[in-house]
Amino acid sequence: EIVLTQSPGTLSLSPGERATLSCRASQSVSSRSLAWYQQKPGQAPRLLIHGASSRATGIPDRFSGSGSGTDFTLTISRLEPEDFAVYYCQQYGSSPWTFGQGTKVEIK
Amino acid sequence: QVQLQESGPGLVKPSETLSLTCTVSGGSISSYYWSWVRQSPGKGLEWIGYIYSSGSTNYNPSLNSRVTMSIDTSKNQFSLKVSSVTAADTAVYYCARGQILCDYWGQGTLVTVSS
Question: Is B18 strand, coil or helix?
Fold first, then answer.
């Protein structure tokens, strides 16, 4: 199965700053089949990005995804207070679908 | 607005079977895929499998021999069974709509495996 490694583990930033999160796959993810989810404490994950760069319905344009092959990036252009959460990448190009271990974006 | 709600025992003894039901409201369960995902401190998020409204299924091979999913379209419910559980099956279990990309999720239910 494809192993996803996210970095950094924790990102300490201030509101208004730019956040760059990385997701690296142990083998190439076919057809850019990579998604990003946001999870807040006590809540279920929320789909942000699919197809590596397509925003899900209702997701603000400050969230953007890029990458292909084994390296993918989620960028939050200007952090809003509600963006401080844990972010997970997920690959669905090869069964079983797998998730990264998460990056926590915390308030500095 | 589609809503999903997990229900079932919060405590299961080792070697027994974990059983959960997800009730869908605000929309029909027909013509959609429905998934189960779990989250534990040790393993993070783990895809368990999905079921289509016709009853066809696909399970994570790591759990394949112990997992059974079913669906009852008349009740707008689908279910998960995990047999021969151990402490490693302790997790928050989520039900969700979707085969791969899940747009609606339940709030999650904590299942603890302990004697």
Answer: strand
